[in-house]
Write a structure and sequence with these properties.
single chain, about 400 residues, alpha+beta, Chondroitinase Ac, Chain A, domain 3, 7-stranded antiparallel sheet, binds 2-acetamido-2-deoxy-beta-D-glucopyranose
Length: about 400
Amino acid sequence: MHVCSSTFLCLHLALLKDQGARVTRYANGFTQPNSKSEFLNCIDINECVENQHFCGERGSCVNQLGSYLCKCPTGFSNYGNRQTQCAELNCDQYETQPGQTLPVLDSLLSLLKNSCLVLNSPTLSGPTRLLPTGDVLLTLLVNATDVVQLGLQSNGHRSSSEVTKLLRTIEISFRLIAPLLTENVTRIETNHTEVEIMVRRDKTPPKGPVSLTNENTQLDTTWETVVGDYQNYLGFAYVVLLSYRNLDNLKDNTSHQSQQLMSSAVTVSVSNSNTKKLPQQVNLTFHHLQSSDVDPTCVYWSDENGPGVWSGRGCTLVISNSTHTVCSCNHLSTFALLKGIQVKGSGQLSLVMWVGVIVAVTCVVLSLITTLWCRFVSRKRRGGHRLQQEVQLHRK
Ligand SMILES: *[C@@H]1O[C@H](CO)[C@@H](O)[C@H](O)[C@H]1NC(C)=O
Ligand SMILES: *[C@@H]1O[C@H](CO)[C@@H](O)[C@H](O)[C@H]1NC(C)=O
Ligand SMILES: *[C@@H]1O[C@H](CO)[C@@H](O)[C@H](O)[C@H]1NC(C)=O
Ligand SMILES: *[C@@H]1O[C@H](CO)[C@@H](O)[C@H](O)[C@H]1NC(C)=O
Ligand SMILES: *[C@@H]1O[C@H](CO)[C@@H](O)[C@H](O)[C@H]1NC(C)=O
């Protein structure tokens, strides 16, 4: 506990005294001493004793005059915000691996890895000017996304595995870039990509609805979904809506049939890392690229088995007209509207398929039984005739 007995220090740092009214106010981080005779003095609050969770489980709290800061061990970081919790930060995920990552994204990934290692080092104290800012990293990510989309476009045949690699890189990039952004809302738009990121840095987890909009899509969710488990709240929360203008017309690797998208594809990314099964549905309103009366299907990019495919699992269509469709999904990733209903992995569709198979098999079995029975009956009859004929022959 630090007692600042110097009147100058108190006036300078902490104390505001309204002359005449004898009202004493203390700046953040200071409190009044017990003895009233020392009213001009003030005492530093030891935030580290008051709240042991300020720095997270692994961070160590260091009290300072009127303030505090968190020191993080190696492998943990508070992204240069000295008063937030230390969170585990895995820099290996930014490793470029031949065949696993797209070469176009390699320079971005190595930049992210360097930033990650600097943020993770225990000697880092406060924001460092040597690192690229969140805005610079975001611009690079968006530019690289443009380049990949152009490459996929000129390829003619768009490979599913390339899309999967792009989407995975984007997902992990936001884990590092979003906490480094300084604005509450950041927007970047290029010829092929549009991104909006909302960041909150409240002391307690934010609550209530949150909505992000871009040219063709609107995302409606809640901060509860964005944050996830309140026990793991790290002192910040972010939600990203990224829209690709040129991921339509993606070719399915297996069938070589063009899968026509009726909307832009969008990636939704949040600070909550457990998004495979959300307790609350997220809603996406898609503006159709062309007004159309074809039935759309709500899909997401599934890369769990194989190179990647649009799948309808976990997504339902809420309402649709000729220009807009609202989809509701119970997990996060990259979403779009697909023309027609040829979707793999949709539970409802496989049910329809199985019913069809069962009906067909039943029909085949029934017709087999009928044929065999008819043959049996006709053979019996012919046999009877032959007997009669023989009898007649014997008589003659
Ligand atoms: C991103 O691309 C735009 C347009 O091609 C260019 O002006 C800008 O400098 C690029 N930004 C970075 C950080 O490379
Ligand atoms: C950012 O959001 C915080 C609350 O989360 C608010 O207090 C602050 O004024 C906002 N800043 C700007 C520039 O809107
Ligand atoms: C973006 O599109 C406009 C118009 O189609 C074009 O003139 C411009 O060169 C494009 N910019 C980039 C960076 O591709
Ligand atoms: C999403 O839509 C469903 C059904 O219309 C609704 O019950 C739910 O509250 C919506 N969720 C959000 C976050 O808006
Ligand atoms: C998908 O396409 C790529 C490029 O044409 C090919 O190398 C790969 O083997 C294909 N994968 C499948 C599962 O067909």
